[in-house]
Amino acid sequence: MANLWILLAVVAVQAALYRPCESLWCNCTTAQCEKNGSRCETDGACMASTSAIDGQEQHIRICITRDNLVPPGQPFYCLGAEGLLNIHCCYTDYCNSIDLKVPSVTTPSGLGGGWGLVELVAVIAGPLFLLCLLLLVGLFLYQYHQRAYNHRQRLEVEDPSCDHLYLAKDRTLQDLIYDLSTSGSGSGLPLFVQRTVARTIVLQEIIGKGRFGEVWRGRWRGGDVAVKIFSSREERSWFREAEIYQTIMLRHENILGFIAADNKDNGTWTQLWLVSDYHEHGSLFDYLNHYSVTTEVMIKLALSAASGLAHLHMEILGTQGKPGIAHRDLKSKNILVKKNLNCAIADLGLAVRHDSASDTIDIAPNQRVGTKRYMAPEVLDETINMRHFDSFKCADIYALGLVYWEIARRCNSGGIHEEYQLPYYDLVPSDPSIEEMRKVVCDQKLRPNIPNWWQSYEALRVMGKIMRECWYANGAARLTALRIKKTLSQLSIQEDIKV
Ligand SMILES: Nc1ncnc2c1ncn2[C@@H]1O[C@H](COP(=O)(O)OP(=O)(O)O)[C@@H](O)[C@H]1O
Ligand SMILES: [Mg+2]
């Protein structure tokens, strides 16, 4: 635009000042020409052009001096300039009086064969417009997805229509646990309730440390809960343990009561929680370290542990049935003592489930997991038949026998009891290697000592007999959890013990 006016001004000034030698007359539309009858005289050429400024068609007719007809043959003034279209230079009197039309968009313009304004606009704005359109569509789709995702999250976490059934303000932990044990699903609370519960727990203090992380006491609605916190690296262990605890029909008074699993992403790392019932006595290991036990308590502890293990091992058929489960890390640190001095089997992280239909195990089991001190001889020497699910149950029974030995040593009979000791305390160092254990258990075929004086007390005699039958080198010859449970039930009746 500015170029056009400069061009017109230059031409007009020259038209006014210049006196040509061989002149010709041209039509002229500039203001200066008006007093000259809208014509001008020049020694160069007449020029006519149309312009389409602001969408309005205008005709421009001017004189061009010879000096300005450079370069010869294709003078600059006769070429296109911004805003000028369809330029025509000619060299006879009034030859620029011809009528010029603004070229249509589709025909090539007079701008020296280049792009016309409309084309340029179309070429630049078209792709830009398309790009914007694509961006808008992308943005819309992204927002739509986000909204749908948030909506789903809200439904999962705090859908009031479902939450109120479980989590009305006045409902306590006891109510929740009652719901759990009576709920039809048989596998625990709905996931969104689990999450809501987990996210409203206030952690209080560390109560234990194990393989994967810390165990905390937490408070929820006036009640205590235990929170096992896994590090992000242990996500697979967290998932596996939560999965096992949510096995249909697993709930049992002698298996740690599972409440919730939650994976909370705080932006930097993921906190992995397993929430369960809290037992203030802690593990059986802790309990036996602190207290000796009466015959009654010994039988209660032993019978409840056998009941828990029998339930874990048992396969229940039917749609509401449960698969057989082997623990694979049974020991006094993984058994909790409840207020009523019954046991609850905990730490199911290494457990395996049996699918009896296909006679397969639900994960590929590695040969030697668990705690070396409690490993059965066939696990230590790797002769265990891992294709056979019952092998894992037999290995659990061996470990249960060791736990019974730990309990029985603490039994107060006739005023005598022994100090707490771990099994094989006198035969291997602390934190023994597999090799050290194998030498003692497989090669020397040694087992924890059963003192003779136990024979004098019926309860200890029965316990001693059970232990021996749990420790056979041949796994298949060992007692089953159910058999142990029955024997101890009889003993408790005999001893007039209320369990
Ligand atoms: N529900 C609970 N109540 C009280 N103490 C617990 C509870 N769960 C675990 N503990 C304590 O934390 C310890 C470690 O817990 P555990 O589940 O065995 O974790 P890990 O898999 O790390 O071994 C237990 O030996 C016990 O002392
Ligand atoms: Mg443990």
From TrEMBL:
Membrane-crossing segments per the record: 115-142
One GO cellular-component annotation of the UniProt record comes to: plasma membrane
Q: Reply yes or no: does the keyword Transmembrane apply.
A: yes
Keyword Membrane among UniProt keywords: yes
| Keywords from the UniProt entry | ATP-binding, Kinase, Magnesium, Manganese, Membrane, Metal-binding, Nucleotide-binding, Receptor, Serine/threonine-protein kinase, Signal, Transferase, Transmembrane, Transmembrane helix
The reaction(s) catalysed by this protein are: L-threonyl-[receptor-protein] + ATP = O-phospho-L-threonyl-[receptor-protein] + ADP + H(+); L-seryl-[receptor-protein] + ATP = O-phospho-L-seryl-[receptor-protein] + ADP + H(+)
Q: What's the protein here called?
A: receptor protein serine/threonine kinase
Instruction: Give the species.
Output: Anabas testudineus
Organism lineage string: Eukaryota, Metazoa, Chordata, Craniata, Vertebrata
